[in-house]
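Friendly challenge for the regulars: who can give me the structure tokens for this chain first? No prize, just bragging rights.
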Amino acid sequence: MILTILGSGAALPTGPRRCSAQVLNVNGFKLLIDCAEGTQNGIRRQHFRLQSFSTILISHLHGDHFFGLPGLLSTMHLCGRTEPVCIVAPKGAREVIETTFALTGNNIGFELEWHEMDFSEGMQRMFENHKCTVDAFPLVHSVPTYGFRITERPWSARAVRSYCYCCDTAYTEAILPYVADADLLCLESTFTDEYAPLAEKRLHLTAGQAAQLAAKASVRRLLLTHISARYKEPEVLLTQAQAHFPNSTIAADGQVIEFPHRQKETPQVG
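First reply, four minutes later:
Bragging rights claimed.
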């Protein structure tokens, strides 16, 4: 499993940080997670083939997570795609894309397979193939927003690895059972702790809050993302997070994270 960060910033793109988009490679199967404006450029910079993506996950319909999708699908068409694309997204995404294409006369030459999320509690299986499963669960934000838990299919004696992506959300311990024991939890960290009242108002997290959730969920590693443009030196976020959860890192555009293999634990006898 290999994670590549295409965009790690919050609502406003900056020079070093573009808005949210990631690629997760699960044993050769590539998932695109969120698709902000500029995602196509990020894909090209990291030398991915546009046509290598057959499954796209959209956490919510705010522009800094979704506005790149119409352009990406159009480019896939212009480059001759004929294979279907599966899109997992909140209810309403299909209407936005179909309306956009209808009004612009943009007909694409491949099928879109929609899996729209419309639930407010629990966790639901949204996608699966022979490489991985994708489960979704609701977060707390100003529009319907979902987190994802992506789990690889079992491989021989190796322990199954999992990746959780939660962006955007207010502080809620309701997510703990859904992200528990993940190998890597990518969690939004828009503000430093002194902006906690603003984070609460805007339904976002501080670095300290993100780390507290990671600790309570017993994840192996925390990756902070969705960094506000106000932080020119975001190391302060990392310092605040590590005070609660030492194994924290901060995302950067172009960053590549490999998930180490783990052996299955042998049950204790007696």
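The helical segments are 39-45, 63-66, 69-78, 93-104, 176-179, 196-202, 207-217, 235-242. The mean pLDDT is 95. Your move, everyone else.
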